[in-house]
């Protein structure tokens, strides 16, 4: 009896200790998030703002890991702290590091922000309590996804089943948005560019031989890991979004160390542009094939003899389309922005007020 009580006491202490550590980590992360947000609000240095934004995304990714949302953490770290930071730094290189001197008093803008913030705070008062088991998110479609995902789709990763199958229309819309962003960037920067503006300048880091050698060693494993994330998304954290960003990061790393023009020679830009549209086409075509087989649009169950096999086939194909579009979109946006460095503003980033 005494031995059982001792065991219960030890287990209780371990549970309390682990819970205390978890709370302590959450408090520390929340404090870092608040400090980062306040620093963002008061800094005038745009480069510091970009770095702080990346730190905020990385801290948010850590929060998502603590909440067992590893897929979301994966995306936040890859997109928020990775590609987005690189794109914003590239943009700063074109526009300049510091904000222009204010020529007006933004009273109206500040008033709009304050009113909007107050309205949002008032709106949160009608929301259910955090973690409430009666919240719409807990009693609507969520329980169905959790209880029927294994029976309907038979893959371990419920997040993938939700994004790729249950919410296939939403994901298709997100891919179209990514592709539209590429079209917008190319329309603004690439299509209007004159060929005589192209200047072969040395890569910014061409003299760093160690970095160049190490990058050549790292780039192939990065691409291989992207393939793993792409085709292992059904069984673990990952999928087309994450794989596309990781694959694009390897190309961007090459561009940073070997130069934009060298990268454009190694990566065929016309092919990349075609692939960005092909990914969307692959996704949309799966829905059309579903309809031709007698099902609804994006109903993968009719793609094979059994519903489960059809779901697997459909998810693999549309995830491939997602990965292709995301990877090529990131590459196109980065190379297009980076190629404008030094053309729009030769003095960018060298002194205050040049933006």
Protein architecture, described:
By secondary structure, the protein is an all-alpha fold. The chain is built from 13 helices and no strands. It has helices at residues 2-42, 46-66, 70-95, 107-124, 136-139, 142-152, 158-166, 168-190, 209-231, 240-258, 260-266, 269-292, 307-339. Helix 12 packs antiparallel against helix 13 (307-339). The longest helix has 41 residues, at 2-42.
List the main descriptive attributes of the protein structure presented here.
single chain, 355 residues, mainly alpha, 13 helices, 73% helix, globular, disordered C terminus
Note poorly predicted spans.
348-355
Radius of gyration: 24 Å
List how many beta strands DSSP finds: 0
Largest sheet: none
Order of helices and strands: HHHHHHHHHHHHH
Outline, from the CA principal axes? globular
Distance between the termini: 76 Å
Supply the helix-strand structural class. Answer: mainly alpha
Query: How much strand content do the residues show?
Result: under 5%
How many alpha or pi helices? 13
- Percent of residues in helices comes to over 70%
Average of pLDDT: 84
Summary of the model, kept short:
This protein has 13 helices and no strands. The chain has helices at residues 2-42, 46-66, 70-95, 107-124, 136-139, 142-152, 158-166, 168-190, 209-231, 240-258, 260-266, 269-292, 307-339.
Helices and strands, with pairings:
Elements: H1 2-42, H2 46-66, H3 70-95, H4 107-124, H5 136-139, H6 142-152, H7 158-166, H8 168-190, H9 209-231, H10 240-258, H11 260-266, H12 269-292, H13 307-339
């Amino acid at each position: 009896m005494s031995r059982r009580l001792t065991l219960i006491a030890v287990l209780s202490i371990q549970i309390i200790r682990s819970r205390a550590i978890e709370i302590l980590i959450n408090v520390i992360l929340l404090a870092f998030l608040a400090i980062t947000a306040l620093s963002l609000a008061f800094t005038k240095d745009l480069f510091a703002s970009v770095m702080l934004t990346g730190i905020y995304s990385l801290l948010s990714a850590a929060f998502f890991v603590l909440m067992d949302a590893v897929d979301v953490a994966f995306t936040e770290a890859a997109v928020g702290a990775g590609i987005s930071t690189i794109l914003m730094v590239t943009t700063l290189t074109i526009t300049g590091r510091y904000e222009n001197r204010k020529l007006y008093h933004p009273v109206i803008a500040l008033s709009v922000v304050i009113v909007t913030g107050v309205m949002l705070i008032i709106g949160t008062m009608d929301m259910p309590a955090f973690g409430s088991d009666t919240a719409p998110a807990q009693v609507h479609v969520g329980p169905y996804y959790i209880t029927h995902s294994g029976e309907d789709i038979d893959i371990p990763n419920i997040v993938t089943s939700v994004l790729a199958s249950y919410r296939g229309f939403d994901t298709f819309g997100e891919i179209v948005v990514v592709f539209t962003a590429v079209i917008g960037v190319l329309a603004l920067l690439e299509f209007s560019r004159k060929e005589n503006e192209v200047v072969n300048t040395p890569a910014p880091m061409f003299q760093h031989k160690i970095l160049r050698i190490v990058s050549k060693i790292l780039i192939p494993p990065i691409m291989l890991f992207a393939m793993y994330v792409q085709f292992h998304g059904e069984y673990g954290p990952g999928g087309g979004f994450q794989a596309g960003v990781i694959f694009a990061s390897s190309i961007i790393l090459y561009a940073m160390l070997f130069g934009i023009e060298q990268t454009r020679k190694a990566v065929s830009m016309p092919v990349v542009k075609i692939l960005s549209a092909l990914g969307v086409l692959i996704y949309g075509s799966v829905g059309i094939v579903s309809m031709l087989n007698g099902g609804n649009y994006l109903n993968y169950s009719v793609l094979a003899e059994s519903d489960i096999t059809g779901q697997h086939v459909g998810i693999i194909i549309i995830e491939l389309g997602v990965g292709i579009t995301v990877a090529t979109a990131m590459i196109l946006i980065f190379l297009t922005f980076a190629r404008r460095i030094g053309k729009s503003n030769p003095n960018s980033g060298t002194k205050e007020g040049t933006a």
